[in-house]
Design brief:
About 75% of the residues lie in helices and about 0% in strands. With about 280 residues, it is mainly alpha-helical. The chain is built from 12 helices and no strands. The mean pLDDT is about 85. The longest helix is centred in the first third of the chain and has 42 residues. The radius of gyration is 22 Å and the shape is globular.
């Protein structure tokens, strides 16, 4: 009797803890949709394609920031994903080597590293020498933020595959590169893709690194790699500090757009990748 009571108390405690964990998430979703949806409905297509309105004079649009977010995320992925995946592969293939252990430790540190310091670093090595904010500087900062997430997920996905599959591939005379990139990566694709998506979602919503690198451009569309570029999170940060009511409404609408972009990319791809059962 006492054991059953303890079991029920434990299950109730777990249920309550789970509920308390997910309540903030759904509260954020509800708040963003409740405040952002009316802005999208009132603004219409102009909100997605137009430029920022003057203070206290309508909504205008966030077109340059939407384009800038896609450009920055694409460039950051182009620079960061190959390095991150290869780093994860190396860490998984040589886990007991000195370099492998150091790499794993460094990746874990980078995951918790303040991203604003990454922005300061890129500002010193790229923005100041160039004399201007730029899309390439913002993308480089985001690539640095993205890499540890993708690398760690790649490593974990590869290390979860039983060694017997790798051993069997080597027994057939396959080279290490073939075993890793054609067999192991295929079996670990769900974990690797999850890491890539989380990394992209992370940088798509980053603000701190862009404060010192991208500069922000809310009224001019993407003008080149060496020119300032806008981004949705950077626009939201700038608008919520303004005293104007229409800017606060635009910030809510931009928040909803950012959330929809993330959900539209993450959910379909995550559901379409079938898990390989070993």
């Amino acid at each position: 009797m006492l054991r059953r009571l303890k079991e029920r108390v434990f299950l109730c405690s777990v249920a309550v803890a789970t509920f308390l964990t997910i309540v903030p998430f759904f509260h954020i979703l509800f708040s963003v949709f409740a405040n952002g949806l009316p802005v999208l409905i009132n603004g219409g297509i102009e909100f997605l394609t137009g430029t920022l309105a003057p203070p206290d004079n309508g909504l205008g649009g966030i077109g340059p920031s939407i384009v800038g977010t896609f450009v920055l995320t694409f460039l950051a992925s182009l620079m960061g994903l190959p390095i991150a995946v290869l780093t994860g592969v190396f860490s998984a293939e040589y886990p007991n080597s000195i370099i492998g252990k150091a790499t794993r430790t460094l990746l874990l540190i980078m995951m918790e590293f303040p991203t604003i310091l990454v922005g300061l670093f890129v500002m010193n090595i790229l923005v100041l020498p160039m004399g201007t904010y730029s899309a390439i500087a913002g993308a480089l900062a985001l690539a640095i933020v993205m890499m540890p997430y993708v690398a760690v997920y790649t490593e974990h996905a590869l290390r979860e595959i039983p060694f017997i599959y790798k051993e069997g591939a080597f027994a057939l005379g396959l080279k290490r590169a073939t075993v890793v990139f054609k067999i192991m990566m295929g079996m670990a694709r769900k974990g690797v893709v999850t890491g890539i998506l989380i990394g992209m979602a992370k940088v798509a919503g980053e603000t701190a690194p862009l404060l010192f690198t991208a500069g922000g451009s809310s009224r001019i569309y993407f003008a080149g790699m060496d020119r300032p570029v806008g981004a949705i999170p950077l626009l939201i940060y700038q608008l919520v500090q303004q005293p104007y009511e229409n800017y606060h409404q635009i910030a809510w609408g931009a928040s909803l757009i950012l959330m929809l972009i993330f959900l539209a990319i993450f959910i379909p791809i995550r559901l379409s990748i079938k898990e390989v059962k070993l």
